[in-house]
Inverse folding.
């Protein structure tokens, strides 16, 4: 029988979850056995599963789960005791201060007892109360659910070592030569389908190319990139750098057909292709995650790239990417 009012999971219930998960019992069935709502069990396992590169020490363990629960409760006690502090933090979140900025500012203020660390503020945001207030909407990324540290499984074993970014020619890093690209996929809300956007940027000129994909399968994605870069002369498409997403695993096609050498960021280090990551944030002004990409035509996507390529950039001496690209192509003609 389900409880008539909300109660937190006990250590005994967490032990049952641990045992039942070991028997491969589905989460929905575990919820039925415990008399809990299925979302309670899903949240419990999601929050308290430990992830590690070694699968033998990854998983849900009831003692760890209980300790993590205790720490979360303890960290939020400061806001229960100090409602004025909680009100201040919420006020600053709503004017788009990040948790780190709030914590740093509170520390600088130096008021005795009037302080909350960054992690405590994040836990407030993703607590039941914080979600009810929609505090996550004021964060830079605006994710409804918090990502776990090391939550993604590393994909580095799929990429040969000599295609790692450490083997990329040094000349690419200093942006002194033309024809070196970075590529990424921009993903949109799942309820709008699988359609995504290929985002390419040339490192020196910051020239942007955008195109839609109907799914994330590697062959169509890499094929699309090949079609986009094929329109340029060979000296304008020498290398391209990706992250380790599975959608880029057919990268040998680019080398076989056009001689483009592909390199990959280290595992969990997409910041190593910072040009395209930064550019994607600019593009999000026009295409937020809520965009129904299927409703936009190729001309709409092209129009966004035209705006990007004809906006002056400080890093280019206030020239536009289009002007810099044209200058390189004319010099090489």
């Amino acid at each position: 029988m389900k409880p008539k009012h909300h109660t937190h999971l006990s250590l005994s219930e967490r032990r049952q979850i641990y045992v039942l998960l070991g028997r491969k019992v589905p989460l929905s069935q575990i919820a039925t056995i415990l008399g809990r709502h299925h979302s309670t069990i899903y949240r419990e396992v999601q929050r308290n599963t430990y992830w590690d590169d070694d699968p033998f020490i990854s998983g849900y363990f009831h003692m760890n789960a209980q300790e993590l629960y205790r720490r979360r409760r303890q960290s939020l006690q400061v806001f229960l005791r100090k409602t004025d502090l909680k009100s201040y933090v919420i006020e600053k979140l709503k004017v788009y201060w990040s948790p780190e900025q709030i914590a740093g500012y509170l520390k600088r203020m130096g008021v005795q007892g009037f302080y909350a660390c960054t992690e405590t503020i994040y836990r407030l945001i993703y607590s039941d109360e914080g979600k009810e207030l929609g505090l996550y909407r004021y964060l830079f990324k605006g994710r409804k659910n918090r990502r776990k540290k090391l939550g993604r499984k590393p994909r580095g074993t799929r990429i040969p070592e000599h295609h790692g970014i450490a083997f990329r020619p040094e000349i690419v890093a200093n942006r002194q030569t033309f024809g070196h690209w970075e590529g990424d996929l921009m993903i949109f809300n799942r309820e709008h389908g699988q359609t995504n956007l290929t985002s390419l940027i040339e490192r020196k000129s910051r020239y942007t190319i955008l195109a839609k994909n109907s799914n994330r399968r590697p062959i169509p994605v890499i094929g699309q990139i090949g079609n986009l870069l094929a329109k340029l002369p060979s000296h304008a498409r020498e290398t391209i750098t990706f992250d380790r997403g599975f959608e880029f695993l057919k990268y040998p096609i680019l080398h076989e057909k056009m001689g483009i050498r592909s390199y990959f960021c280290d595992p969990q280090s997409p910041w190593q292709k910072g040009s395209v990551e930064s550019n994607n944030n600019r593009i999000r002004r026009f295409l937020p995650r809520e965009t129904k990409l299927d409703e936009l035509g190729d001309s709409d996507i092209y129009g966004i790239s035209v705006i990007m390529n004809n906006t002056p950039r400080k890093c280019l001496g206030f020239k536009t990417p289009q002007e810099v690209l044209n200058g390189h192509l004319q010099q090489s003609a």
Notes: The chain has three domains: 1-75, 82-144, 159-332. The first strand starts at residue 49 and ends at 50. Strands lie at 49-50, 59-60, 180-186, 196-202, 208-213, 239-242, 261-264. Residues 159-332 form a domain with the Nucleotidyltransferase; domain 5 fold (CATH 3.30.420.10).
